[in-house]
Amino acid sequence: MELRKTFGRFVDGGALKPKGWLRRQLKLQAEGQAGSLDKFWPDVKDSAWIGGKAEGWERVPYWLDGFIDLAWLLDDDDMKARATRYIDAIFANQCADGWICPCPVEKRADYDMWSLFLLAKVLHVWYRRTGDPRVAPALMEAFRQLRSHLAANPLKNWGKYRWYEGLGALAWLFEETKEPWLLVLAERIRQQSYDYPSLVANWPYQSKATKWTFEEHVVNLGMVIHSELFYQKLHPESNTDGEAFAETLLANLMKYHSMATGMFTGDECVSGDSPSQGTELCAVVEAMYSEELLLAATGHAVWGDRLEKLAFNALPAACSADMWTHQYDHATNQIGCQNEPTPIWSTNGSEAHLFGLEPNYGCCTANHGQGWPKLAASAFLLGDRSIISALILPCRLETEIDGAQIVCDVETDYPFRDTATYTITVSQPVAFDLKIRIPGFAKAAEIDGKPVKTGDFHVISKTWEGTTALNVKLTFEPQFVDRPRGMSVLWRGPLLFSLPIPSRSVKHEYERNGVERKFPYCDYEYFATAPWNYAFAGKDVAVEEHPLPEMPFAEDKPPVTLSLPMVRIPWAIHEKSIAIAAPQPSSLTPEGAVEQKTLIPFGSTMLRMTEMPIVKVD
Ligand SMILES: [Zn+2]
To answer: How far is the CA of 460 from the centre of ligand 1 (A)?
Structure first.
């Protein structure tokens, strides 16, 4: 039988290369925390996956997932060699019976199989980058072993809630081998898993979680967006609809737990729609990955818009510009990142707002590195006789159709600018479709001066010869968007804008539980040094562009700013907090004179006010 077809497939090997600001961002990551964990962080450096004594479950697979893609996108030999050392060790440590995770035989019954599903995802990434012939037999044996393991040890805990994560690899193996038992295994895994479709159809979680549950866990919810899509690929005859499931889940989350960026709150469980509440970085990168898969599978451009909102806003907001520190939870309105003695979060600890090595917990340390590389790897997709520009990002694609060598170069500073130039060079005349996703954020768009539809793929179907240049021009306009509690946020194109709050940072270098925090991998608190209690005082917005900085999301050098009138209003600190704003102001009566203030991209800020009321000023 044939598996369900997808709109576009991801580009294997090293045929897609980032350029411009995107390459600089990836280089920052490579030279920052996620690119260096194997040098200093015990959970990766001394992992049980490579024979060490530290964690032998999710940390190394999480880290490799982003690190492998990053190494190949940057074509960095040193990083490739470091990734190879881990993959070699994982293959070398596989047991004769196929068991591949670092766990002694007597403890297997208690081992949470989520890490195998995650490792399967990683080994599939490794195969797509390297074509390593060891991957298919190792995974076949691991899945064969899983089949017998599950007969005696049904899925539990994380494995039960993240059951779908290995299905991408399983689908690839089935296409390679046509072994029918792989499809049966997928069915068995699903039978043992938590029934998300029923949860989504009867959504009960309409307010902030009061206790920690797997069902309300925000990272699970970010991942599960793509679950039915994966299952539907393997079992097209089943009555599930992967995209409808994803749409309904997101609609539930956006109705009750939305953030201005299009992300949903969770600390760690869903936590309502207050702009002070925040979400976990792991959930951001998992939701991005889900949306990348949905865009590639369906070709529905709206998934690209959703993805870009997270990638250009939520992801950079949760990381420092130099990519050396990250937050566990970042919030829409964030007036301090301090140690909170009585955290307002459902279950997260007092450090969840700090920027650092592993504030609150180390999952995001290992996992956040998949965010930028997987975005970059989604810039171009390949279809049947088509080349798909899924995201307008600066990059170069080299591919081949009917023996013709094709190079697609994209020069752009999008999302900070509104133009892009595509240069397509072919070695001999060749017919194919070029499909360019025109973002729905644009009020209008044109290619070479001719208007094109926004929020859709524009298709150019022709025989290409020599070199062709295409100029894409988008029209962005500042736009106020309503939020709960009578508040508003200000967007321009794919970028959300915030009032940056001047701050001072306090560095914390220390050691805890054998994990050292030492510059540059130390923790920081941020304290506001100026008032933050502002409201919009008008809608007359002036746009100004500035040179793109070396660090694309540096707070002191924003590539684009918006200025508009604002005014201070009474707005208290959250009653349980020392540096978190109340969800809404105490009054809309202005305090003092109107001031002209400058807003910068949300992703460039450390402390910020984003969601504010619009007040009338006499
Ligand atoms: Zn995390």
So the answer is: 41
